[in-house]
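FORM 7B: Structural annotation worksheet

SECTION A. Query
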Amino acid sequence: MNTYDSPEIINIGTGKDASVAEFAEMGKKAVGYEGKIVWDPEKPDGTLRKLLDVSKLHALGWRHKTELSEGIKITYEWFLKNKT
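SECTION B. Predicted structure
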């Protein structure tokens, strides 16, 4: 990516899908929250899938090294060390 020189946007991700519920559980685990996540069935679901197309990224030879759950944990730990 240090030599990428194109105006096209490149999605960076794992290429794996995660539901909002799965994402919430990853965040819950990362921050050590032991409570229950409560969903309001009266609210709209929103976009069911938010899977990024990483084919351009893969064509450049780049692959992710960090899974989403680990990235959330690392980001939260960074936040705790750097919050003001």
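SECTION C. Observations
The first helix runs from residue 20 to 31. The chain has one domain: 20-82.

SECTION D. Sign-off
Analyst initials: ____
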